[in-house]
Amino acid sequence: MRKLRYLLCGKLSFVCLLLALLVGGLFLTIFLPALLAPIAAIERFFALLCAVIVCCDGTPAEYKLSKTVLILLLPWTGAVLCFFFLSKPRKTEFEGTMSETPSSQFPLAALSEALCGVGACTLKTAEYFSVGHDMYVRLLEDLRAAKKFIYLEFYIVAEGVFLGDVMEILTRKAAEGVDVRLICDGFGSALTLPSSFGREAERRGVRTLVFRPLRFPSRAAGRRDHRKIVAIDGTIAYTGGVNLADEYIGEKIRFGHWKDTALRVTGGAASALAALFCKTWNENDKTRPLVPPKTAGGGIPCAVLCDSACETTQRAGRQALIKLFAGARKRLYLNTPYLAPDASLMRALESVALSGADVRLMIPHIPDKKLPFRLTRSYAQELEKSGVKVMEYTDGFLHAKSVVSDDVVFVSSYNLDFRSLYLQAECGVAVKNNALADRLASDFLAAWAGGTPLPREGDAARFFGRLLRLAAPLM
Fold this sequence. Notes:
By secondary structure, the protein is α/β, with parallel strands linked by helices. The chain folds into 2 domains: 2-83; 103-474, Endonuclease Chain A (Endonuclease, Chain A). It contains 15 helices and 17 strands. The strands form 2 sheets. Strands 4-3-2-5-6-8-1-9-16-15-14-10-11-12-17 form a 15-stranded mixed beta sheet, with helices on both faces. A two-stranded parallel sheet has the order 7-13. Strand 14 and strand 15 (408-412) form a beta hairpin. Helix 3 (61-73) runs antiparallel to helix 4 (77-83) and helix 10 (316-327) runs parallel beside helix 11. The longest helix has 46 residues, at 11-56. It is globular and about 85 Å long.
């Protein structure tokens, strides 16, 4: 070993290294120019092949533009990355109950039946929460009263007061024989939960499932479970924008006051949301299958809209938003934290604004992510020129995802961006009810009164926002 060390550190080794470098340099000098042309030709052919495949993919034009730009900038690595975004369109097969009332009772019911397999539902009650803390208080009461099962599905699950209080109740209920299960997304909860959380939850009787744990490479890495569902006994369910983390209920301050919304429903929509959880669980865990609950009834027309994390076309949420926009005659109020719609949604919003309806859009003033925030402002500026009134929420971060279209409300997990509209698993409940619509409209207008108008930006900022649109489908 000592002789080997002397040999490697000696002058002879250094001379040999210099000689090897010299020979290598001469080789490159002589042969590299002759090799560059074939390498460049292969590179161009590979990029062209990838561009053709991208153009033949069944995705919107905005996706194809972003991928083509990526291929032009990075012919080798960009083209390879594009293959991870390719997917085969697939229609949803819903493991739940079918329509209990005629689809004509509520326009969105036909859409729900065609794309989600749910059809028309009816509600007994619908309770709206204008902030996450109000939902938190009501949710703990319902969890304590559970008799049969508790199903929870969240994009983000984070350690803290909210999770601690919920887990305390879930542990007690599991000991009483209640079936308790939790789904969290593998990306959304990757940095907020310790690796031991699943084992600890199972030890306490809470069956857990991580939706698509992070693995590389994976063609489905960007297709996440962004839903927020709590289903209790098949009779009560919650959905909206609130995740199982402290900032959503005001226990942890991030970017000021966290504005979020949620909906508590009883009746048919509650059964459908429970069945939606069962479908996700059964697709990812074949060993412990769940049977969807029977349909409950009610008297308020509604529709449950949902999309899975494997579709690229015929997305129910996007179609529902277009119908809500087109159906507005008097008012259309929108809350969204991220705004990056496709061309069809932009034109739908512009059309209803030009028709004379009161169209208002509220977006954040304080960003949680810099680039999506710049992108949101860029699209908002374009909509404002078409007559859409835009305001920025100034008290903190706006995470609410709600729509009021005349007497119809839609509270969901959908953002108005490409990820929600085309990639992620999402869900929401649309309700046709004047009193509920007025409740959401009053909450929206109260936040609007304290908002800040969209600021005027310089040419450089506007150009940067336009430039970001090339990458909007990939952000």
